[in-house]
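Subject: Interface between my chains keeps coming out wrong

I've been trying for a while to get a sensible model of this assembly. When I model each chain on its own everything looks fine, but I need the whole thing in one frame so I can look at the contacts. Pasting all components below, labels as-is. Any help appreciated, I'm running out of ideas.
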Amino acid sequence: MKSLVFAANWKMNQAPADAEAFMRTFTAQYAKQQDRRVLFFPPAVSLHVCMAAVRTRSDLECGVQNIHWEDKGAFTGETSASLARGAGARHALIGHSERRHVFGETDAETNKKVAAAVRAGITPMLCVGEKLEEREAGKTLDVCLRQLRAGFEGIDAAHVASAMVAYEPVWAIGTGKTATPADAAEVHAALRAELVRMVGERGGAVPILYGGSVNRSNVEALIAVEDVDGVLVGGASLDAEQWLAIVRS
Ligand SMILES: O=C[C@H](O)COP(=O)(O)O
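Reply #2:
Try treating it as a single job with all components included. I did that and got this:
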């Protein structure tokens, strides 16, 4: 049985009171399952609430949705990896498609953020994915592999091997359009092969999650795909009952 990661990215939703109610419902109803970890990426202002809720649970962990690449300094509005680590975060999303395509984050910036996460002892979850026009132009694998290589450039093999990757086709995020299991299989296999090329056998154990309109109806078909080691879920992770159904898949 493969080991799975279910990650909830709440994006810019769930104020502390909402997060507290969600976590109360979730932790009361979800019993640890040996084959899976559940990760929460709340907005930074609600991280402390989620941290408090998972304190006694080894199967539940929290992270942040973004970090800055500098460790500290005059960067108003930013959160460094070390600040996030100090607040208890164990993971950071890096290069999420909204960071890349809404905020103009570049491959070089994702690389600096991965390095900052590693310095701070946070696990980076590097997100990659193609836009619709790139898919239609047959560039899906080129784009995803470029983003993967660039994000991990200069990062030592041990830290690449202990990172996570998420494949999120941009055209499938928040649109209700999901990649088919065959679409996901092709990209995940290519990412896996590249990770193995980069770090050897250990690349075979790097979790590669799929994200993009995942819900309780399509999750089982996606996690059944070889090299899909879990899911990164936005909209469907905002409702505790729906999230419970997904993580129990
Ligand atoms: O990080 C999550 C992804 O952006 C997917 O979001 P979604 O499940 O709302 O499509």
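Reply #3:
Confirming on my end. The chain has a mean pLDDT of 97.
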